[in-house]
Amino acid sequence: MDEQDRGRADSIDPADQWVLNPDTGEYELRLVPSAPQSPPPGARRSDSRESGHTPRDRTATLEREAGKTTGREIPLQRRQRAKPEQSAGRRSRRPAKKKSKAKKALIWTGGTMAFILVATGAAAYTYLKHLEGNVTTTDIGSAGKQGFSKDDAFNVLIIGTDKRTGRGNEGYGDKGSVGHADTNVLLHVSKDRTNATAMSIPRDLVVDIPDCPTKLADDTEKVIPGTEGARFNTSLGQDGRDPGCTMRTVEAVTGIPVDHFMMADFNAVKTLTSAVEGVDVCLEQPVNDADSHLKLPAGDSTIAGEQALAFLRTRHSWGNAGDLDRIKVQQQFLGSLMRKMASGDTLTSPTKLVSLAEAATKALTVDTGIGTVSSLKDVALELKKVPTKNISFMTVLVLDNPADGPIHKTVIVNPDLAPPVFDAIKNDVSFTEVKEPKEKKQEKDPEAALLKGAKSGASEVRVRVLNGGAENGSAQRTLEWLQNKKGVLKSENAGSLPDDRTQSGTTLEYGPDQASQARELAALMGLRGSAMKPGESVINAQGLAAMTLTLGKDFKGAGVSFSSPKTAPKVEGSSTANEVKCAS
């Protein structure tokens, strides 16, 4: 934060800025600038200079307008300070007010986690009307949702770019970078708000970037061709790709639809950590990194500004000096920053809260679906409901890319371990222990009775796998999974159905004497009762009766359950926001 911003924040008397909104019955913070500010490029900001009114006139006007809205006049003493002769005698004491829901939302969501924190901090201060002018928006078209729903689970992609924008950032990132997706966190917030998952996506993950419709400055649309076998970070910036392209890439890789994005640059970390007067970190050994210029002793330290950014950019001093180890350290930093934001020292300091609001919104770009005051307020109120102990940090499970040879530079999605994690997030399953709401109803399976009864054992299952609408190669991958992972050795590839006979759902057809085999295979694959089709058996290559497993368009991948998982898999290296860990 520069001196102008700091002076502006300190000159505000927060007690005078909380104004009762007659429409909601809650107090809202009406922040009035104490000094003229130049609006950012492309943004129009309400300013008292335009109307000739003073800041106090503006506050009074807001309150008068609120009174007109409800037909009630706000009492004069709510709009004016006491005259000198009224305050000369005994001072009147205002009764202590209980914090309103709006204030609690403002306090709790003053920040959650670094880049995620940028998003949360911005949302928390939507009561500060003038801050909307700080936020830059991008129209991502059909890549995300056009609005925010308070009744659903939601997924927000937090992007930290490596673009060297802002003073003092010349030494970070790639010189001349168009702004790639350098740090990426997919934040999932559960429908019942009992938990959230923050999954980091490595920048060096090799993915297929899909075709991306992108809106241009003249409101026309251009489709940017996709790229196979590209690094994830090139889903942003490269060839003119916008954040919507990164969102589409996330869904293509994980199967998880992304609703919104929030993006920040290097200045976000510097300004936010300075606004809260530093973040506590812990190191197992001293660090003196020649690349990032980070120099810290072993043990506890408090870092802010340039030093905080250097901490997050450091790679060669952690673990195996790779991006995956840096991600772990970044997650530890994010948890510590969230704890600092939620601390009493921060929450009881109006100056820190105001400074944090300015810092967050100036470094933030969001999609138009949440780019309004009301939408960001709703995001804030929903985020505040999640307990910090139930916010899980994890990283996409990966393998070294075999195409790299002996020197590993990139990674690929682990085809065995990653899909169940993606599936759990997509189906809103918590990675921490939470109490299931009593009113939550389990989805009923009308054909569940077909799954009940004795099972034959995997070694007795005879099945032919047929591709009936799934991705090319799905039958072979499923066959290999069944044989190598589940011991279903009496299985074979039956090829594919013609295009005009494909089906939307996966089915398992079996003869009258194969019910126990069908139940065994259904249990192994997570098939629902509705997928079970009592019928006729077929003859396999060995001349024996076999079942027919037809993979439909709902097939998610070999080993991925067709039923919504009830519990999330254990993820190695995961942590929660309330844990304190030391970087190593």
Tell me about this structure.
By secondary structure, the protein is an alpha/beta fold. It contains 18 helices and 26 strands. The protein has an eight-stranded mixed β-sheet with strand order 3-16-11-4-5-6-17-26, sandwiched between helices. Strands 20, 21, 22, 23, 24 and 25 form a six-stranded mixed β-sheet that branches. It has a two-stranded antiparallel ribbon with strand order 1-2. It starts with a helix and ends in an 8-residue tail after the last strand. Residues about 1-20 and about 30-130 have low confidence and may be disordered.
* Average pLDDT: 76
Q: Largest sheet at a glance?
A: 8 strands, mixed
Radius of gyration: 28 Å
Number of strands: 26
Q: Assess the beta-strand content as a share of residues.
A: 15-25%
Globular, elongated, flat, extended or rod-shaped: what is the shape?
elongated
Structural class estimated from helices and strands: alpha/beta
Number of helices: 18
Which spans of ≥5 residues are poorly predicted at pLDDT below 50? 1-20, 31-128
Q: Distance between the terminal alpha carbons, to the nearest Å?
A: 30 Å
Strand order of the largest sheet: 3-16-11-4-5-6-17-26
Helix content range:
25-40%
